[in-house]
Amino acid sequence: STQSTWGAKQRRLCLFVMAFIKVVKNKAYFKRFQVKYRRRREGKTDYYARRRLVAQDKNKYNTPKYRFVVRVTNSRVICQIAYAALQGDKVLAAADSKELVRYGIKVGLTNYAAAYATGLLLARRVLKQLKLDSDYAGQVDVDGEAYHVEENMEGDRRPFKALLDIGLARTTTGARIFGAMKGAADGGMHIPHNEKRFPGYEAGEKEGNLDASAHRDHIFGIHVSNYMEYLQEEDPDKYATQFSQYIKAGIKADSVEGMYQKAHAAIRKNPDRVTPERKHAPVKTVTGNKVKTSKATYTRRVKISNAQRRSRVEQVKAAKVKAAVNA
Questions:
Q1: Cα 281 to Cα 279: distance, rounded to the nearest angstrom
Q2: Which residues contact residue 326 at a Cβ distance below 8 angstroms, ignoring those fewer than 6 apart?
Q3: Tens digits of per-residue pLDDT, 205-251?
Q4: Which tops the pLDDT comparison, 20 or 105?
Q5: For the stretch 69-94, what's the b/e string if a residue is b when 16 or more beta carbons lie within 10 angstroms of its beta carbon?
Q6: Over the range 208-234, which residues count as b (16 or more CB within 10 Å of their CB) and which as e?
Q7: Which of 50-54, 63-67, 158-162, 274-278 has the weakest average pLDDT?
Q8: 96-105, 147-156, 246-255, 311-320: the lowest-pLDDT one
């Protein structure tokens, strides 16, 4: 009886406490709930930034607002010139750090120097596409200093302008996205920016200072070659593991800077995209649910009509009735 009395007190106490809990997510909350955009739910798009990058002035009518889009993955650096349309974003030109192999950069396709070269490649490519490459050569002698093409207008036409789009990347000092931006700026594109996020920048109490030589070292991969020399002396085993691709390609610490200098010159000489040639025409034949390609043969499900589905149900029913009668 003592236990039952104690249980009754507990239940009364729980009911007393529950009576004063405020219901936050009630019916009114769910009726007014608005689902966020799909790419926001997936964590892919920062719409706060995108709204400002895409919105165009009304007095400019249908003039595209171009964005210099930079994305860094585990294996490559991707740069694009894109603009927004009602049907979705459209890409004017693109460059990939995998293309740098054609210009002599066979390894390290995701470091700062590769990001710079990719940005330079895209800038020269899009300017050639718009026939502005002869008017705006950009910064040919790279010294790491800030360069703005709009301050050095050489032709009658204004320089090609695009806004930097970094997506969800962090804007830390020395980030590779700013290496790609610097490459595009040196390539002759007008991208509004300052030098506060370049490698070698030190913030002061009133004004900061950019160490141009440190920035130049990152552009030509000298920071990589210094680390290669350090590992060779201190830990040869780790050097053999970490720089195995460099060793396989025959790239030594003292040849890294020259590799990037030659690549920059080759990019300026011919920035065109090369489409790989197919060894044979694609082959694909479909027979019923059998698909035969040039590489393999596989089976796929074929959608059946409503009449076929009803016929199949009748056949199954008839088979079951027959089995029950025979049993």
A1: 7
A2: none
A3: 778 899 999 999 999 999 999 999 999 999 999 999 999 999 999 99
A4: 105
A5: bbbbeeebbbbbbbbbeeeeeeebbb
A6: eebebebbbbbbbbbbbbeebeebeee
A7: 274-278
A8: 147-156
Which tokens go with 285?
């034949």
Give the chain's length: 327
Residue 23 structure tokens: 């219901």
The pTM (predicted TM-score) of the whole model is: 0.79
**DSSP character string of 147-216:** --GGGG--SSSPPPB-EEE-TT----TT-HHHHHHHHHHHTT-B----STTSTTEE--SS--EE-HHHHH
In Å, how far are 248, 308, 316, 318 from 322, measured between CA atoms? Answer: 71, 21, 10, 6
Q: What share of the chain is helix, strand, coil (3-state, %, to 5)?
A: 45, 15, 40
Residue whose entry in the numeric block shows the structure tokens 């070269």: 117
Q: Which residues are registered as beta bridge partners of 172?
A: none
Burial class (CB in 10 A: 0-12, 13-18, 19+), 162: buried
Distance CA 264, CA 127 (A): 16
* Gap between the Cα atoms of 221 and 256, Å rounded: 6
For residue 19, pLDDT over 80 is answered with: no
DSSP state of 237: H
Single-letter amino acid, residue 43: G
How many CA atoms are closer than 13 Å to the CA of 145, on its beta-carbon side? Answer: 8
pLDDT band per the 50, 70, 90 thresholds, residue 125: very high
**223 contacts 176 by C-beta, under 8 angstroms:** no
Which structure tokens are listed for 290? Answer: 């059998």
